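Sanity check. The docking grid for iron/sulfur cluster depends on where the pocket ends up, so I'm generating a full predicted complex first rather than guessing from homology. Inputs follow.
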Amino acid sequence: MEQLGFDFGVTPRRLMKVTPARLSTFDDCPRRYRLAYVDRPTPQRTGPWAHSTLGAVVHNALRALFDLPAAERTPARAAALVGRHWKDAGFADSEQAAEYRRVAKDWVARYVADRDVSDDPRGVERWVSAPAAGGDGPASMIVEGRADRIDERDGELVVVDYKTGRRAPDEHEARSSQALALYAVASERTLHTPCRRVELHHLPSGTVAAAEHTPDSLRRQLTRAEETAGDLQQATDKLADGGDPDDLFPARTGRRCSWCDFRPSCPAGQQAGPAARSWDLLAPLRDDTGNDDTGDDGSADVGSADGGGEGGRGGTPARAAAGVDRSSGGVS
Ligand code: SF4
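Predicted complex below; grid placement will be based on this.
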């Protein structure tokens, strides 16, 4: 199978190490990138977010599930693992946390009931890494990160990413996700097995959004990643040479500032809008008929650390999240 921008015969020039999270952070807001990855000591951040806690619990439960022998991967065990890994960090109160603990148990139990989880994955929260280039030249960067799960099906790898946000992702999102594409490239190289298929497994809806990459589609994602990596490296180098941090890493304000982890350290973000509360970005609860009780379209994806939100807990956490959107993706 064709290798994608890998360089086996030429001594690489300076290789930039990039992760999908770093690239998307810089794309979203260079100031946020500087605060998260460049400034030391790390500037003051917000406290924990409930939606991040929820996502982490689900990820940890599913990781632990695949540590069990296949015969023990039952819905009941999966729900119990949610309870074992549960944390209340960021929730409004113990009552709200208990509601979401119950919901998360249901999500994970249904996932195990509906999906074949008997095969052992090639990797669970597996670190993958590969030198790569955006074009046909020598490698310019090392693409790396931790994939939620890497399956092997019919002799090829499949990158699986768990989502716990408000809205079920579609095929377009799976296909256009730079993070999933980079994980596919790095997984193929790390595990010496072809990898073209990527999947977003949305726990709240039980849906899977999948895409099959081609060499060209992966190359386009690598080209874009290389451009972003070059920009962020140049800004970092100029900062080290005494450049102006505000010019090199400009604040890109927007609704995201309401829930940005670094809002306490960013005056521009504070002026951009009101702060979201730590539970405002939770996925909506659903009633027994499976309908959101928000009445909105559930457009936010809060399955990872970034999310969007305004409004408040006006009676229910679901209504609190109504109207939220989210501008930052990434693979958690
Ligand atoms: S608060 Fe807004 S402008 Fe400031 S770092 Fe965060 S996203 Fe960027």
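Relevant for the grid: The mean pLDDT is 86.
Also worth noting: The radius of gyration is 20 Å.
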